[in-house]
Amino acid sequence: MTVAVERVDDNVILSVQQAAVLITGASSGIGAATALAFAELGARVALVDLRTDGADAVAQRVVAVGGEALVLEADVRDPDRLEEVVAATVERFGGLDAVVANAGIADQSSVAGGDPARWRAVVETNVLGALYTVRASLPPMLERGRGHVFLTASVSGRESYVGEPAYIASKWAQVGFAHALRQEVMEAGIRVTVVEPGIVDTPLTRGSPVVRPLLEAVEPLRPEDVAAAIVYAWRQPGHVVVSELTIRPLRQALPQFDDDLV
């Protein structure tokens, strides 16, 4: 693979142009917006999702703005499948320069009344899914001595409130994992950034009758806002890592869910 580089302050860093980027949860929302943000700068993008019908549409948009797309179906709860996905990405693009562990689901409930099966799905998707995605992605980065890992967490991984106990727990876990990972791989030349958005207007949030009123109470973030933050962190000089990046709507307070929920 021919890799474009740029020199900033005497530090050679990989340019976003021609980079190979793998994104989970890429069919919509933050994942799709991030794919397009990288593609607009010439990146090759592996679009990974549980269902590929939406990813196919995103792939068409990626190509239209100047990128290259590879659509791959995977459940992030399946570590073996994620290894296959990374292998297919490396075979197609010649390497892997960045991974965005973005796939996630939510749950609104009380501790006393929540559904244990849903809690399991939240933890397995958000926590184990992120760990499995990163585990599969590290070998080609370690081999080349460079790379960038992004984890899409949430301000819910830094602040607590009533109404989303399992989701909050999963996001706190992602933040802790990101900082542990950064210390593990920094000497290998791999950067790690955990991105913590506030409320974002995505199909996941707008499709929830419980969360939709929170969207309508503020001017929420757009997926493109989060994607721009990710690209910002990626484009820092090679000796710089934006290890933690919180981005939230200007007027967002802590969520207050309907009393019937809890």
In short:
With 262 residues, the chain is of the alpha/beta class. It has helices at residues 29-39, 53-64, 79-93, 116-144, 165-185, 203-206, 212-217, 223-234, and strands at 5-8, 11-14, 20-24, 44-49, 68-73, 98-101, 147-152, 190-197, 244-247. It has one domain: NAD(P)-binding Rossmann-like Domain (Rossmann fold).
Write a structural description.
- Helices cover about 40% and strands about 20% of the residues.
- By secondary structure, the chain is α/β, with parallel strands linked by helices.
- The chain has one domain (about 5-260): Rossmann fold (3-Layer(aba) Sandwich).
> Helix count?
8
Q: What helical percentage do the residues reach?
A: 40-55%
Element-by-element helix/strand order: EEEHEHEHEHEHEHHHE
What does the average pLDDT come to?
91
Rg (CA only)? 18 Å
What is the fold-level CATH name, i.e. the topology?
Rossmann fold
Task: Quickly give the CATH architecture.
Answer: 3-Layer(aba) Sandwich
Distance between the termini: 54 Å
Number of domains: 1
- Low confidence ranges: 1-15
Largest sheet: 7 strands, parallel
Shape: globular
Question: What is the strand tally?
Answer: 9
CATH class: Alpha Beta
Spatial order of the strands in the main sheet? 5-4-3-6-7-8-9
What proportion strand? 15-25%
Structural class: alpha/beta
Which key terms come to mind for this protein?
42% helix, two-stranded antiparallel ribbon, 262 residues, single chain, disordered N terminus, 8 helices, Rossmann fold
